[in-house]
Design brief:
48% of the residues lie in helices and 12% in strands. It is α+β, with helices and mostly antiparallel strands. It folds into three domains: 47 residues; 105 residues, no CATH class; 68 residues, no CATH class. It has a three-stranded antiparallel sheet. Strands 1-2 form a two-stranded antiparallel sheet.
Length: 248
């Protein structure tokens, strides 16, 4: 460290800073101590985040399907209902969330959901999709529809709400009081492996088109009785991708 260089001290590091001065440490030693303290605090924040998520999931939440999709004739959970049901419990566990929106690419809308613990650690997940031009929406409605869909999907994914009654077109599989059974770990692994293989061959692709085809918001929400349909779709896509590469 240069002589006369000013050391920026964060409030949480003041005790170490004062202790170091009392011990007669020079500026370089003080800086190293503060760096170690920052690394320790970061690790502790990560641990606190994991504990908070475990605490959050220890109390299952029931998210009711308060919306109805006329096109598919299915009930679903609106984003307002999901968030209003989940955030009070998140607050009890010291967790908050926010979304960041990126529309720098006019053809795609990217939504990033960020969940932060009060100790400072954050985790995030992102999804992208084009404006929803289905039906007779105007441009603003197309953008709003996609933003709402992606906000719900990223929030559900990050908070692990797949096992709840979340946003999903279940094609009647959850009707009459019969719960929907989702892909088990082995099935989900096969689906994710296939998606990864497709993206490896063609990095321009992502899982968005597949998710939209399955009419769900994440792989976690694919009903088990649609596993064969999912694999058939992915195998066809993989075959098409390979043909494109070979003829390219």
């Amino acid at each position: 460290m240069k002589e006369n260089e000013i050391v920026k001290v964060e409030p949480q590091s003041l005790s170490i800073f004062h202790l170091a001065i009392e011990k007669g440490y020079d500026l370089e030693q003080i800086e190293k101590m503060m760096q170690l303290k920052e690394k320790f605090d970061k690790l502790e924040a990560e641990k606190a985040f994991v504990r908070a998520m475990a605490e959050f999931k220890a109390e299952p939440l029931v998210i009711t399907k308060d919306g109805f999709n006329k096109k598919y004739g299915s009930h679903y959970s609106t984003i307002g209902n999901i968030v209003n049901t989940v955030t009070p419990r998140m607050g009890e566990c010291g967790l908050t969330h926010k979304w960041e929106i990126d529309q720098s690419n006019e053809a795609m809308i990217k939504i990033t959901c960020i969940v932060t613990h009060e100790a400072g650690h954050s985790e995030q997940t992102s999804m992208s999709a084009p404006p929803d031009n289905s039906g007779s929406k105007n441009l603003i409605q197309e953008i709003k529809s996609t933003r709402t869909y992606l906000s719900s999907a990223t929030f559900e994914s990050l908070m692990g709400l797949a096992s709840s009654n979340a946003n999903i077109n279940d094609d009647g599989n959850g009707a009459a009081g019969h719960p929907v059974t989702y892909l088990d770990d082995k099935q989900k692994g096969q689906v994710l492996d296939m998606i990864a293989e497709i993206i490896t061959i063609d990095p321009q692709r992502d899982e968005t088109s597949f998710i939209n085809y399955m009419k769900v918001t994440s792989v976690d929400l694919i009903p088990a009785n649609r596993f064969n349909q999912a694999m058939s779709c992915l195998k066809t896509t993989l075959s098409d991708v390979r043909k494109e590469v070979n003829h390219g």
